[in-house]
Design a protein that fits this description.
- It is built from eight helices and 14 strands.
- It is of the alpha/beta class and 385 residues long.
- The strands form four sheets. Strands 7, 8, 9, 10, 11, 12, 13 and 14 form an eight-stranded mixed beta sheet that branches. Strands 1-2 form a two-stranded antiparallel sheet. Strands 3-4 form a two-stranded antiparallel ribbon.
- Helix 3 packs across helix 5, helix 4 crosses helix 6 and helix 6 packs antiparallel against helix 7.
Length: 385
């Protein structure tokens, strides 16, 4: 078991009127009403154009079902989070001892709901910016890797009607009615990238644990960018942190973090590589790389109004996605049963809702630029002639 995380220093996004690189050291102050000794209640159109290698077959739309959740069928098994978008499934499980059993009713929320909540949380965190790099404005051709529900791509396209935005994902869970300058493609980013044209901005978010090795993926990103183009990645990190050591050493929440790291490692797609992104980017050739760190409170324990609101959205996101985040990793990576996983989530959820535990989720943003004098890589159009 890893030791309780020590105090960390984070940065908050600079106000819109300042430069993006300006940062402020911050320690989140807890609401005094929730102190450690508080005895209160603890509790578009889917398109695969000719330039893409994937074809949108009917089998892609036939999602795989596992432990009550649905998962992508294209390149099945690569991504461990579900893609539910239709129903909520009530499940009753029993925990406690035989003399004093507790019955818990679970509602397995759709993953698409969680993704949209996280989008709103990111928007709030970065002072209502969709990106922190200079391409927050001014991009002409944009790729959104792992677009999920497509909400980021749609928002960027709405804000920048002059830009062409492409969102790509393993699952076809994006909307049909979208701005005319955005389209979605169903494809596997680990396979060969065959877009005939370069992008001046490539973006991705929440893809930790998606790839066995980030270097070949980021090499594809670099090659697909035009000189002077930017790449930005926004991702959550493990484990949960604290500034005042209010996370118990026997914390279920901390154990959950450690188990997810262990399980993802066993599956060959580790979730603990977030802080390596910029190192790999520099190795490949990116310049002007910037790292930014933020904190998402686990619930509404902070005193500061802005952090309290962030905590509300953070709790809503994990409340909606706890079982989805846990199920495939723990059952595939650690051979847990569905019942064991759901029972464990009872204790994790109890702690993440407890305002006496002043915990936060570390969030990391890295971005960099492809040099203007970078040699051009061959495109699919070049190699086909």
């Amino acid at each position: 078991m890893a030791d309780t995380p020590t105090s960390q220093t984070a940065e908050i996004a600079a106000p819109a009127s300042t430069q993006a690189e300006q940062v402020h050291e911050v320690v989140i102050v807890p609401d005094v009403r929730h102190g450690p000794n508080d005895d209160g209640d603890a509790d578009s159109t889917y398109e695969v154009p000719p330039e893409s290698t994937a074809s949108l077959r009917s089998s892609i739309l036939e999602f795989q079902t596992e432990n009550g959740r649905t998962y992508h069928s294209l390149s099945a098994g690569k991504y461990v989070l579900p893609n539910d978008e239709a129903s909520r499934v009530p499940i009753l499980i029993r925990s406690g001892n035989a003399l004093d059993p507790m019955i818990h009713e679970y509602t397995l929320s759709q993953e698409s709901e969680r993704l949209d909540i996280v989008h709103n949380l990111n928007f709030l965190t970065y002072d209502y910016r969709l990106a922190l790099c200079p391409k927050n404005n001014g991009a002409k051709r944009v790729l959104d890797m792992g677009t999920g529900t497509g909400v980021w791509a749609v928002d960027y396209a709405d804000a920048h009607p002059e830009a062409e935005v492409i969102g790509v994902d393993l699952s076809p869970i994006q909307p049909n009615f979208v701005p005319p300058n955005v389209r979605f493609e169903i494809d596997d980013l680990e396979k060969e990238w065959t877009w005939a044209h370069k992008f001046d901005f490539i973006f991705c978010r929440s893809l930790s644990g998606s790839f066995p090795d980030w270097e070949p993926v980021l090499q594809k990103v670099y090659d697909q960018l035009e000189p002077g183009g930017y790449f930005e990645i926004q991702d959550g990190a493990f484990p949960v942190g604290t500034d005042d050591n209010t996370i118990p050493r026997d914390s279920a929440l901390l154990r959950w973090c450690n188990l997810l790291v262990e399980a993802s490692g066993n599956l060959g797609r580790p979730v603990d590589q977030v802080y390596n992104y910029s190192t790999i980017m520099r190795k490949i050739g990116f310049v002007d790389c910037v790292d930014r760190d933020f904190k998402w409170p686990t619930n509404t324990w902070p005193k500061n109004k802005r952090f309290k609101e962030m905590g509300m959205w953070s709790l809503a996101a994990l409340d909606a996605g706890l079982e989805g985040l846990s199920m495939a990793l723990l059952t595939r990576g650690l051979n847990w049963t569905m019942e064991e996983t759901l029972a464990f989530c009872v204790n994790v959820r109890r702690e993440m809702r407890d305002p006496r535990i002043h915990a936060y989720w570390p969030v990391h943003v890295a971005y960099g630029r492809k040099p203007e004098n970078a040699p051009a890589a061959a495109t699919a159009e070049d190699t086909s002639t």
